[in-house]
Design goal:
CATH class: Alpha Beta
Structural class: alpha/beta
CATH topology: TIM Barrel
Helix content: 25-40%
Distance between the termini: 17 Å
Radius of gyration: 18 Å
Strand content: 15-25%
Number of strands: 11
Low-confidence stretches: 1-34
Protein backbone atom coordinates (compact mmCIF):
# COMPACT_ATOMS: atom_id res chain seq x y z
CA UNK A 1 0.00 0.00 0.00
CA UNK A 2 1.33 3.42 -0.89
CA UNK A 3 2.21 5.65 2.01
CA UNK A 4 0.45 8.98 2.23
CA UNK A 5 2.68 12.07 1.90
CA UNK A 6 4.15 13.32 5.15
CA UNK A 7 1.98 15.90 6.80
CA UNK A 8 1.86 17.83 10.03
CA UNK A 9 -1.02 17.06 12.38
CA UNK A 10 -1.19 20.70 13.45
CA UNK A 11 -1.26 21.85 9.81
CA UNK A 12 -4.04 19.44 8.89
CA UNK A 13 -6.17 20.29 11.92
CA UNK A 14 -5.60 24.01 11.45
CA UNK A 15 -6.61 23.93 7.78
CA UNK A 16 -9.78 22.01 8.59
CA UNK A 17 -10.55 24.41 11.40
CA UNK A 18 -10.37 27.41 9.10
CA UNK A 19 -13.13 25.95 6.95
CA UNK A 20 -15.64 25.70 9.79
CA UNK A 21 -14.56 28.37 12.25
CA UNK A 22 -17.34 30.74 11.23
CA UNK A 23 -20.97 30.06 12.07
CA UNK A 24 -20.62 27.18 14.55
CA UNK A 25 -24.28 27.29 15.53
CA UNK A 26 -25.77 28.60 12.30
CA UNK A 27 -26.88 26.65 9.27
CA UNK A 28 -23.95 26.16 6.90
CA UNK A 29 -23.32 24.25 3.72
CA UNK A 30 -22.15 20.72 4.48
CA UNK A 31 -18.94 19.43 2.89
CA UNK A 32 -19.33 17.10 -0.07
CA UNK A 33 -20.68 13.73 1.01
CA UNK A 34 -22.45 10.74 -0.52
CA UNK A 35 -25.90 11.81 -1.66
CA UNK A 36 -27.64 8.86 -0.03
CA UNK A 37 -25.76 7.24 2.86
CA UNK A 38 -26.76 3.67 3.44
CA UNK A 39 -25.86 1.30 6.26
CA UNK A 40 -25.73 -1.67 3.90
CA UNK A 41 -23.22 0.15 1.69
CA UNK A 42 -21.20 1.06 4.76
CA UNK A 43 -21.04 -2.55 5.93
CA UNK A 44 -19.97 -3.60 2.44
CA UNK A 45 -16.94 -1.27 2.64
CA UNK A 46 -14.14 -3.13 4.44
CA UNK A 47 -12.25 -0.95 6.87
CA UNK A 48 -14.89 1.77 7.19
CA UNK A 49 -14.25 4.33 9.91
CA UNK A 50 -16.75 5.86 12.34
CA UNK A 51 -15.57 9.11 13.91
CA UNK A 52 -15.86 8.59 17.69
CA UNK A 53 -17.54 11.71 19.10
CA UNK A 54 -16.49 13.37 15.86
CA UNK A 55 -12.82 12.63 16.55
CA UNK A 56 -12.34 13.05 20.27
CA UNK A 57 -8.54 12.97 20.06
CA UNK A 58 -8.45 15.57 17.31
CA UNK A 59 -11.04 18.26 18.14
CA UNK A 60 -13.29 19.25 21.05
CA UNK A 61 -15.58 16.26 21.11
CA UNK A 62 -19.05 16.29 19.55
CA UNK A 63 -18.79 19.90 18.45
CA UNK A 64 -20.01 20.86 15.00
CA UNK A 65 -16.40 21.70 14.28
CA UNK A 66 -15.37 18.12 15.07
CA UNK A 67 -18.04 16.55 12.89
CA UNK A 68 -17.32 18.83 9.94
CA UNK A 69 -13.58 18.23 10.26
CA UNK A 70 -13.99 14.45 10.45
CA UNK A 71 -16.28 14.45 7.43
CA UNK A 72 -13.80 16.59 5.49
CA UNK A 73 -11.13 13.99 6.21
CA UNK A 74 -13.40 11.27 4.81
CA UNK A 75 -14.98 9.63 7.85
CA UNK A 76 -17.64 7.20 6.62
CA UNK A 77 -19.91 7.67 9.64
CA UNK A 78 -20.22 9.92 12.68
CA UNK A 79 -20.94 8.89 16.25
CA UNK A 80 -22.72 11.07 18.77
CA UNK A 81 -23.76 10.53 22.36
CA UNK A 82 -26.61 12.67 23.57
CA UNK A 83 -27.78 14.31 26.75
CA UNK A 84 -31.04 16.19 27.37
CA UNK A 85 -31.50 19.47 29.18
CA UNK A 86 -34.26 20.30 31.64
CA UNK A 87 -36.12 22.18 28.89
CA UNK A 88 -35.96 19.26 26.46
CA UNK A 89 -32.98 20.12 24.26
CA UNK A 90 -30.92 17.15 23.06
CA UNK A 91 -27.24 17.90 22.53
CA UNK A 92 -23.88 16.16 22.20
CA UNK A 93 -22.53 15.05 25.57
CA UNK A 94 -21.03 11.73 26.57
CA UNK A 95 -21.42 12.25 30.32
CA UNK A 96 -24.25 13.23 32.60
CA UNK A 97 -22.35 16.38 33.56
CA UNK A 98 -20.33 19.06 31.81
CA UNK A 99 -17.52 18.60 34.31
CA UNK A 100 -15.06 16.64 32.15
CA UNK A 101 -15.64 18.61 28.97
CA UNK A 102 -15.97 22.14 30.37
CA UNK A 103 -14.33 22.02 33.79
CA UNK A 104 -17.52 22.60 35.78
CA UNK A 105 -18.20 20.94 39.13
CA UNK A 106 -21.40 18.97 39.54
CA UNK A 107 -23.12 20.57 36.54
CA UNK A 108 -25.75 17.91 35.71
CA UNK A 109 -27.07 18.62 32.22
CA UNK A 110 -30.56 17.29 32.96
CA UNK A 111 -30.95 19.84 35.74
CA UNK A 112 -30.16 22.90 33.60
CA UNK A 113 -31.65 24.66 30.59
CA UNK A 114 -30.05 24.80 27.19
CA UNK A 115 -29.27 28.48 27.72
CA UNK A 116 -27.27 27.53 30.81
CA UNK A 117 -25.45 24.73 29.00
CA UNK A 118 -24.72 26.95 26.02
CA UNK A 119 -22.84 29.39 28.23
CA UNK A 120 -20.00 26.84 28.39
CA UNK A 121 -17.54 25.63 25.76
CA UNK A 122 -15.97 22.23 25.14
CA UNK A 123 -12.33 22.03 26.15
CA UNK A 124 -9.67 20.68 23.76
CA UNK A 125 -7.69 19.43 26.76
CA UNK A 126 -8.09 15.74 25.84
CA UNK A 127 -7.02 16.27 22.22
CA UNK A 128 -3.60 16.14 20.58
CA UNK A 129 -3.75 19.91 20.23
CA UNK A 130 -4.87 21.35 23.57
CA UNK A 131 -4.10 24.89 22.37
CA UNK A 132 -6.86 24.89 19.75
CA UNK A 133 -10.04 26.91 20.44
CA UNK A 134 -12.80 25.70 22.74
CA UNK A 135 -16.05 24.95 20.87
CA UNK A 136 -19.78 25.25 21.61
CA UNK A 137 -21.89 22.23 22.46
CA UNK A 138 -23.91 21.06 19.47
CA UNK A 139 -27.68 20.73 19.52
CA UNK A 140 -29.01 17.58 17.89
CA UNK A 141 -30.99 19.72 15.43
CA UNK A 142 -27.80 21.37 14.20
CA UNK A 143 -26.07 18.01 13.72
CA UNK A 144 -29.06 16.66 11.80
CA UNK A 145 -29.28 19.79 9.67
CA UNK A 146 -25.74 19.24 8.45
CA UNK A 147 -25.41 15.46 8.52
CA UNK A 148 -28.84 13.83 8.70
CA UNK A 149 -29.22 11.98 5.41
CA UNK A 150 -25.62 12.89 4.45
CA UNK A 151 -23.64 10.52 6.65
CA UNK A 152 -24.51 7.37 8.56
CA UNK A 153 -24.99 8.46 12.18
CA UNK A 154 -24.41 6.21 15.19
CA UNK A 155 -26.73 7.69 17.85
CA UNK A 156 -26.51 6.91 21.56
CA UNK A 157 -28.91 8.44 24.13
CA UNK A 158 -26.34 7.66 26.84
CA UNK A 159 -27.54 8.50 30.37
CA UNK A 160 -30.91 9.95 29.29
CA UNK A 161 -33.84 8.19 30.94
CA UNK A 162 -35.59 5.76 28.59
CA UNK A 163 -38.90 7.58 29.02
CA UNK A 164 -37.50 10.33 26.77
CA UNK A 165 -36.39 8.01 23.95
CA UNK A 166 -39.61 8.72 22.06
CA UNK A 167 -38.54 12.36 21.73
CA UNK A 168 -35.26 11.26 20.19
CA UNK A 169 -37.01 8.91 17.79
CA UNK A 170 -39.28 11.75 16.68
CA UNK A 171 -36.33 14.09 16.12
CA UNK A 172 -34.48 11.55 13.98
CA UNK A 173 -37.61 10.73 11.98
CA UNK A 174 -37.85 14.35 10.83
CA UNK A 175 -35.00 13.75 8.38
CA UNK A 176 -36.24 11.60 5.47
CA UNK A 177 -35.20 7.97 5.05
CA UNK A 178 -33.84 7.65 8.59
CA UNK A 179 -33.88 3.88 8.22
CA UNK A 180 -31.03 4.22 5.72
CA UNK A 181 -28.63 6.27 7.83
CA UNK A 182 -29.44 5.82 11.55
CA UNK A 183 -27.67 3.22 13.68
CA UNK A 184 -28.87 3.08 17.29
CA UNK A 185 -25.79 2.66 19.45
CA UNK A 186 -25.52 1.61 23.11
CA UNK A 187 -23.82 -0.85 25.46
CA UNK A 188 -25.05 -4.38 24.77
CA UNK A 189 -27.03 -4.48 28.02
CA UNK A 190 -29.16 -1.49 26.91
CA UNK A 191 -31.51 -3.62 24.85
CA UNK A 192 -34.46 -1.22 25.15
CA UNK A 193 -32.82 1.23 22.75
CA UNK A 194 -32.15 -1.64 20.34
CA UNK A 195 -35.84 -2.58 20.45
CA UNK A 196 -36.86 1.01 19.73
CA UNK A 197 -34.52 1.01 16.75
CA UNK A 198 -35.99 -2.12 15.28
CA UNK A 199 -39.50 -0.68 15.51
CA UNK A 200 -38.27 2.20 13.33
CA UNK A 201 -36.45 -0.02 10.85
CA UNK A 202 -33.07 1.24 12.06
CA UNK A 203 -29.97 -0.88 12.60
CA UNK A 204 -28.48 -1.19 16.05
CA UNK A 205 -24.94 -1.53 17.35
CA UNK A 206 -24.32 -2.98 20.79
CA UNK A 207 -20.77 -2.73 22.06
CA UNK A 208 -18.93 -4.33 24.95
CA UNK A 209 -15.47 -4.72 26.43
CA UNK A 210 -13.53 -7.88 27.08
CA UNK A 211 -13.44 -7.05 30.79
CA UNK A 212 -17.25 -7.08 30.86
CA UNK A 213 -17.32 -10.53 29.28
CA UNK A 214 -14.77 -11.73 31.83
CA UNK A 215 -16.97 -10.45 34.67
CA UNK A 216 -20.23 -11.73 33.17
CA UNK A 217 -19.70 -14.72 30.83
CA UNK A 218 -23.43 -14.83 29.96
CA UNK A 219 -23.66 -11.18 28.92
CA UNK A 220 -23.72 -11.86 25.19
CA UNK A 221 -25.92 -14.93 25.61
CA UNK A 222 -28.59 -12.68 27.12
CA UNK A 223 -28.22 -9.67 24.84
CA UNK A 224 -26.61 -10.37 21.46
CA UNK A 225 -29.87 -11.28 19.73
CA UNK A 226 -31.12 -7.73 20.26
CA UNK A 227 -28.35 -6.17 18.14
CA UNK A 228 -27.68 -6.14 14.40
CA UNK A 229 -24.02 -5.18 14.84
CA UNK A 230 -21.70 -5.88 17.74
CA UNK A 231 -18.63 -4.10 19.06
CA UNK A 232 -15.54 -5.19 20.97
CA UNK A 233 -12.50 -3.27 22.15
CA UNK A 234 -9.52 -3.53 19.85
CA UNK A 235 -7.31 -4.65 22.74
CA UNK A 236 -9.46 -7.67 23.58
CA UNK A 237 -7.72 -11.06 23.38
CA UNK A 238 -7.96 -13.01 20.16
CA UNK A 239 -10.19 -15.60 21.84
CA UNK A 240 -12.74 -12.94 22.75
CA UNK A 241 -12.72 -11.67 19.19
CA UNK A 242 -13.32 -15.19 17.93
CA UNK A 243 -16.21 -15.56 20.40
CA UNK A 244 -17.94 -12.34 19.32
CA UNK A 245 -17.36 -12.86 15.60
CA UNK A 246 -18.74 -16.38 16.01
CA UNK A 247 -22.15 -14.88 16.73
CA UNK A 248 -22.48 -14.16 13.02
CA UNK A 249 -22.89 -10.38 13.08
CA UNK A 250 -20.58 -7.67 11.78
CA UNK A 251 -18.23 -6.59 14.57
CA UNK A 252 -16.79 -3.09 14.89
CA UNK A 253 -13.56 -2.50 16.79
CA UNK A 254 -13.46 0.35 19.32
CA UNK A 255 -11.93 2.78 20.21
CA UNK A 256 -8.93 3.17 17.89
CA UNK A 257 -6.30 5.90 18.02
CA UNK A 258 -3.43 4.52 15.90
CA UNK A 259 -2.85 2.90 12.51
CA UNK A 260 -1.41 -0.15 14.30
CA UNK A 261 -4.70 -0.63 16.11
CA UNK A 262 -6.53 -0.44 12.80
CA UNK A 263 -4.24 -3.11 11.37
CA UNK A 264 -4.99 -5.34 14.35
CA UNK A 265 -8.72 -4.77 14.06
CA UNK A 266 -8.80 -5.71 10.40
CA UNK A 267 -6.58 -8.74 11.00
CA UNK A 268 -9.07 -9.90 13.65
CA UNK A 269 -11.90 -9.65 11.13
CA UNK A 270 -13.50 -6.37 12.18
CA UNK A 271 -15.92 -5.01 9.60
CA UNK A 272 -14.99 -1.46 10.56
CA UNK A 273 -13.61 0.68 13.33
CA UNK A 274 -14.68 3.44 15.67
CA UNK A 275 -11.75 5.85 15.83
CA UNK A 276 -11.04 8.66 18.27
CA UNK A 277 -8.02 9.88 16.30
CA UNK A 278 -9.45 10.06 12.80
CA UNK A 279 -6.58 12.22 11.54
CA UNK A 280 -4.20 9.35 12.29
CA UNK A 281 -6.40 6.36 11.44
CA UNK A 282 -8.12 7.46 8.23
CA UNK A 283 -4.97 7.83 6.11
CA UNK A 284 -3.90 4.33 7.18
CA UNK A 285 -7.02 2.40 6.19
CA UNK A 286 -7.00 0.20 3.09
CA UNK A 287 -7.53 1.88 -0.26
CA UNK A 288 -11.13 1.51 -1.39
CA UNK A 289 -12.92 2.27 -4.64
CA UNK A 290 -15.92 3.76 -2.87
Amino acid sequence: MEHAPAWSRRAVLASLGAAVLAGEGAAAAAPAAPAAPDVDALLASPGFVVAHRGGSRDWPEMSLHAYSSAADLGADALELSLSRTADGVWFGLHDGTLDRTSGTTGFVAAQHTWAEVNAFRISPGATRDPEQPRRPYARLEAVLERWGGRRVLFVDPKAVDARFHGELVTALRRVPSSQDWVVAKAPVATTGWAAAARREGWRSWGFCWARELDADPQLLTRTAASWDLLGLDVGAPDARWAQVRGLGRPVLAHVLATPAQLDRALALGAAGAVASDVAAVLPARPQRSR
